[in-house]
Specification:
8-stranded antiparallel sheet, 19 strands, 292 residues, binds 6-O-phosphono-beta-D-glucopyranose, mainly beta
Length: 292
């Protein structure tokens, strides 16, 4: 159906009431609601649904470049291209019939090939599980005659009640690159990660499971990832928020990006090879502690 500005979107619904919305523009998930109809992803009220601007919020796909780690535009171009519905996807491992899913595909245009001279097929399956879990599986196949390398992220914006009350578990004691300090490498020292100022870090070689605890909402997001060793944690805080045209001045209080990513060691694909990167998001009540 039609979304903002007439852009095409697909709505996934699960029998118990959860739902997700996916824009073909960017192959971008803009909404994920639980079976009580509560929105779990942050989407800015100032988001601009107009090419070439990527949609501010939801789950932008960063490909073939994360951030400024290369010569392409920030976060690559997949997030501001029109994707298509893949009506004939190659076989996937079994999908049970009580799951709602959509298959999308992105292939470079002639203009894209001028920016990044590599041919590929990027298939993205977005699945809403029976319990309302949201799963994204990216499969990128090299259809070129030569190898290429890329970096990648699922730039997920989680909706949180109050950033000062949020804690991230699973990244303690890890090494990270600090984007606010010229990508210098540090080691995390303390307990679980909490927030009191701007943060923009790339945690390296993280566990496959990360938890975001929202005390006020009594909700914990659990993020599971596969093929994506790194995790970016980003909140622009007050000053940066004010400098972004498509982000409300106070919205930083109600969002946190935790991004499953492959950045430090770019993925290299030989001709004919395929890479798979998977993200699974779920929620549990806040009494939960990660590791249990
Ligand atoms: C994060 C980066 O992933 O995305 C930040 O680490 C960046 O450095 C942020 O500011 C938002 O990027 P953009 O291009 O969507 O404004």
């Amino acid at each position: 159906c039609k979304g903002v500005n007439g852009l095409e979107k697909v709505v996934l619904r699960e029998v118990r009431g959860s739902s997700a919305e996916v824009y073909l523009y960017g192959g971008h998930v803009t909404s994920w609601k639980n079976d009580h109809g509560e929105e779990l992803l942050f989407l800015s009220t100032k988001a601009i649904f107009k090419p070439p601007k990527a949609i501010r919020g939801g789950i932008p796909i960063c490909f073939p470049q994360f951030g400024s780690h290369g010569n392409l535009e920030q976060h690559g171009f997949a997030r501001n291209r029109l994707w298509s519905i893949d009506s004939d996807p190659p076989p996937f491992p079994t999908v049970s019939s009580n799951k709602a899913f959509i298959d999308l595909i992105f292939k470079p245009s002639e203009d894209d090939l001028k920016l990044w001279p590599h041919s590929y097929e990027f298939r993205l399956r977005i699945t809403l599980g029976p319990g309302g879990d949201l799963m994204l599986t990216s499969r990128i196949r090299n259809t070129d005659g030569k190898p290429f390398s890329f970096t990648f992220a699922y730039h997920t914006y989680f909706s949180v009640s109050d950033i000062s009350e949020v804690r991230v578990e699973g990244l303690e004691t890890l090494d990270y690159l600090d984007n606010l300090k010229a990508k210098e490498r540090f080691t995390e020292q303390g307990d679980a990660i909490t927030f009191e100022s701007e943060v923009d870090k790339i945690y390296l070689g993280t566990p496959s499971k990360i938890a975001i605890l929202d005390h006020e909402k009594k909700r914990t997001f659990v993020l599971r990832k596969d093929g994506l060793p790194d995790a970016v944690v980003w909140n622009p805080w007050e000053k940066k928020a004010k400098s972004m045209a498509d982000f409300g001045d106070d919205e930083y209080k109600h969002m946190l990006c935790v991004e499953a990513a492959a950045i430090e060691k770019p993925i290299t694909l030989k001709p004919g090879e395929e890479w798979k990167g998977r993200l699974e998001l779920s929620t549990v009540p806040s009494s939960y502690r990660s590791g249990q």
